[in-house]
CHAD domain-containing protein
Amino acid sequence: MADTKREIERKYESDDAALPDLTRVRGVASVRDRGVTHLDATYHDTADLRLAASSVTLRRRTGGADAGWHLKFPVAPGVRDEIRAPLSDTLPDELAALIRSRVRDRDVRPVVRLRSDRDVRHLLDDQDRLLAEVSVDTVHAERLTGEGGEARWTEIEVELADDGDPDFLDKVEKRLRKAGVRPSASASKLARALAETEPGTASASTSSAQKGAPGTPPATAPEAAPRHKHRPRLDGTPVTAGDHVLAYVRAQRDALVELDPAVRQDVPDAVHRMRVATRRLRSTFRSFRSVLDRTVTDPVSADLKWLATELGADRDQEVLAERLTQALGRLPADQVNGPVAERLAAWSEARHHGAHHQLLAVLDSRRHLRLLDTLDALLADPPLRKKAAARPDKALAKAVAKDFGKLSRLVEHALELPPGTERDTALHEARKKTKRTRYAAETAAPALGGPAEEAVRDMKALQGLLGDHQDSVMARRTLRELAAVAHAAGESDFTYGVLHAGEAHRARAAEEALPEAWRSISREFPF
């Protein structure tokens, strides 16, 4: 069974491997020598280094107190989540699943071996509690693929103790800098090893005394330049309508890939965020058909709709469970009859377990992995239309205005209907169009600035109002089902009726607030 540890550390290099006196760091009462440990780690990746390109590391390590398989995902500069699994000869299935969105069907194999002699010291406070671990690592790197060479260097690593204050690392760094120690130019040992053992590297054996920043691992599946004459500036700044749309598409593709491990680990809100990225992609393809050829994007949109539906089974249940649990908690004790909380919790757990199990199968399916490959290919060779080369201010603003026009017709139609099922359905359709308009405005915001940002705010407010209404519709349906089950079991269904009445009141409040909210938005909408 794998476990996860948040790792906060900083790396340094120096012309002199000796450490300064660290008892002079504020808060450090003593420094305890923990001796030298020999570590032997083999790093695994695809032939085109897909994991390294996204700053993900996978290794099998022996030696030290944590021998086993280690998978590290970047969180922020100097912060990574390390997922550990017991030592075995082959990659554990649970870790293989967590890298699947990045490696797809590519084989993972040994690429670099790092052997390190780690001289460890513990920084302790006046109560003998661990503040940080400081190590001087003498590293020997060996490339295991192609005709790569070897490299050697020495580095200093400072890792914060579990639940430690990150500000403490600043105090340690201040002391190290005074002693001539400088931050490492490389983010990780693997990145440095890949750079310094690359076939054709001038020096096959490198020491920490040599100057110059080591390179970074090569990009994975590099995207080709767009097939139109208007391209982003050399600094990556989008300059055409097509550039802005592709930048938004790329960000959502990245979100799908990066959120996959979190969804598999059942991290709170991960399913919701992945579903939003899926919807944003689909909406972008539909809103900007004048920029991207729909004969190419329509089949992709169909797969995105499928994925969003699969994600929705878990997400919708999650939203409902939270909403009903909170509503139950607000009721006075004399209105709660029977084991309502227990039945609600059992319903939630059973639905979530089944939905999550199904979702794992979806993420491992050939259709999902093919979708990710298709998005990569679309970004590498985008199906740009003539208007993709147009100025972004006009082309993007026109797309937002067009979506808002469609939204206007839907809202006005819903407001003309009497309360009931038909109006509920119409308001739900308006909610979906509100999201599409919001995502179009998000795409345009980097180019259009204030007006687009205002449109995003307006759509978020409208989305919240319509969303509360739709959640009430779904909650009332669920309460009727739960009441029927409770009644069949001989339990009181009174509390379910109280909750149902409360949800009906919330729906009416949303409907009553909508006309004025819509008048304000439509009167001042900037497009």
